[in-house]
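Ticket #4471: complex job returned nothing on first submit. Input attached below:
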Amino acid sequence: MESYRVGLVPGPVKVPQEIFNAWRNDYGSSDLESEFFDLYRDNQRLIQKLLATKNDIIITSGEAMSVLWASLKCTLKADDKLLAVSSGLFGEGFAEMARSFGVEAEVCSFPFDEVPEPQKVFDFAKRYRPKVITAVHCETPSGILTPCLEDLGRIAREVDALFVVDFVASAGGVSVDVDRCNIDIGLLGSQKVLSLPPCLSVSSISQRAWSVIEDVNYSGYESFIGWREVPSVLAPYTLDWHAVKALNVSMNMIFREQPEKVYQRHKEAASLCREIGQEIGLKLFPKDERYSSPTVTAFYVPEKFTWPEFDRALREKGLAVGGNYGQLAGKVFRVGHMGSQADCELVREGMDIIRNVAG
Amino acid sequence: MESYRVGLVPGPVKVPQEIFNAWRNDYGSSDLESEFFDLYRDNQRLIQKLLATKNDIIITSGEAMSVLWASLKCTLKADDKLLAVSSGLFGEGFAEMARSFGVEAEVCSFPFDEVPEPQKVFDFAKRYRPKVITAVHCETPSGILTPCLEDLGRIAREVDALFVVDFVASAGGVSVDVDRCNIDIGLLGSQKVLSLPPCLSVSSISQRAWSVIEDVNYSGYESFIGWREVPSVLAPYTLDWHAVKALNVSMNMIFREQPEKVYQRHKEAASLCREIGQEIGLKLFPKDERYSSPTVTAFYVPEKFTWPEFDRALREKGLAVGGNYGQLAGKVFRVGHMGSQADCELVREGMDIIRNVAG
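Support reply: We reran it on our side without changes. The output follows.
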């Protein structure tokens, strides 16, 4: 389907018209105009506020994978050690990515339907002494929100590691307190809660992280080097003014509604999704309902269907949801209620289609 | 200025309404829908046709610098040798980028206002035996089009090197014959001739290049690895459907007008620009008018002005042109007549403002 009558894919989410309107403007060159630099700065300010941080905010062009790579390549050299805290695919992914360029990486692993236990991470970290600890706030494939970022951040400080957090599928829909959680590098993409197309990435970077980044001095498109003083200095490449404007519209939408209300809207949509799921007899993937993310809900595929059959039946009624990858492929599907899709009416409409098909 | 009354910056260029309309569509997930895969394939087919090549075409998210980096990182390991053919800033840039990750790089250097001499390159290459030779088709900062890609491609074959060409600011506005020129990796950005925002990059990759890429096996956001079979396999990250659609609109605009006529339109705009420049008494930067690119014209800043004074005076009358970087900063300015700006009426309007200010 080119577009969805009822779209509940966990990103890219439906782009609201107000955000699309950014592409109606006829902008000049983002390399030259003070209006662009002001817009970029305004985004930095709004994102700092959203993430409750004084850390630097940089906005770069490319899908969120660009900053996931950046966070590793800019902080780790070959033979440095990474500890990836993982209860899911993206958690494990950090370790695989790091190993691919010669970093020693260990995974402190928890079942995909559970959340990390800080004590186990602490014991692991004390023994392993990593340079960087990574964590994933919302594991989109398993619909789980890690509740212990603050504990993990404290552990990272105690073992003198940098704390890198992928909050690509949570920040903006769930409160993320970067400074309180000691997040040295925080990573956000545009196509999840922010409801833009997959065009921009946002990173928050602490002074501690900058010291390491400058020491490692990695060069490449993914590098954070060169971005610290942007927009006071020219960015390493021409930024996409339209996308940066769209990000500004999205941030203003969040602050107009008020972040607390946005978070409440996400909680309610998620809660309704689980409630109807339970009524229908769907089995929630997370072992405990409290682990379930406010941005995405993962259910087992109903037993009487294969995933392709189930997906086809939902699509025939106009509903698109997310399938899965890796060990969850074919077994677990996801309802994405983040950003513009954190909407009880939409969730009800989608879940009614699921009821109709699976009930 | 947020937008230009008369915009002649050499990229990002003005985005035509027809291309902006791509952002009015409500697309689903580019990871899931066959309509997206078909669109991506259609772009691959159209770009192959435009570039006269049977090589693979890949379309990735991010500014053109992403594929400039990719072309080096995917083909060169530390201690491999690069020969950068250079008569300009981007030519030299390839060598600097390669050195930053441990590659041995030499520059076969020509003055910025001239074009490469194939015989000198051949002698250099025979002696140096590089693994990769890079060249820049249009040096945007100096407004020069390298006329000898075919010779350089032949030289690369003779010394058994890969031939990498940055045609970011030429392809689509100037004929580029990838297969005839033996271009193993060709690099194109979206914000120049294609007249999109700076959101996508396009690369053409030969079978010879893939062998090297697979041998080097570089991993990272910039890597070409994982893209060879896209869209038959899932891309390494979520693609931007809106941008890929905009690219399709742009390609269809080129084929509707017919490439030969598009090239003629660029030639005429460039010729008019130089003609009026001469009337006004502006000094062309390229040593010989025949070196001047059909996509961008570089003139010396008139002697009675500093660049900031001149720029300010033009801007007061609604005209934006490009300044310069590095050794050309403050000395040479550029009129960008590429893509949507390859328009004699627009060029006349802009040059009349320059006449008014400088004449």
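The longest strand of chain B covers residues 56-61. Closing as resolved unless it happens again.
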